[in-house]
Write a structure and sequence with these properties.
79 residues; mainly alpha; 3 helices; transport; translocation; protein transport
Length: 79
């Protein structure tokens, strides 16, 4: 789509709304264009995401523990 068509002119009317059946057909047509990952890729992505989340959970937990102890030390908490 060219920029002129995408932006339209100030006097253009908005496109009419599609009914749910047309919307559903368009969604299915778009999903058919998707390149789905293979099972091997999916398993690989799962492990990458799992390791990433676990590393950041560890990082945030250590920061929370450190800042908590620092706050107790500064404000005179018990031991």
């Amino acid at each position: 789509m060219s920029e002129a068509n995408a932006q339209g002119t100030p006097g253009d009317k908005p496109a009419p709304k599609a009914n749910p059946a047309v919307f559903l057909r368009q969604v299915i047509a778009e999903l058919r264009k998707v390149v789905w990952p293979t099972q091997k890729q999916l398993v690989n992505y799962f492990w990458v995401v799992l390791v990433f989340v676990l590393v950041f959970m560890l990082l945030v937990s250590l920061l929370d523990l450190g800042f908590g102890r620092l706050a107790f030390w500064i404000f005179g908490g018990a031991n």
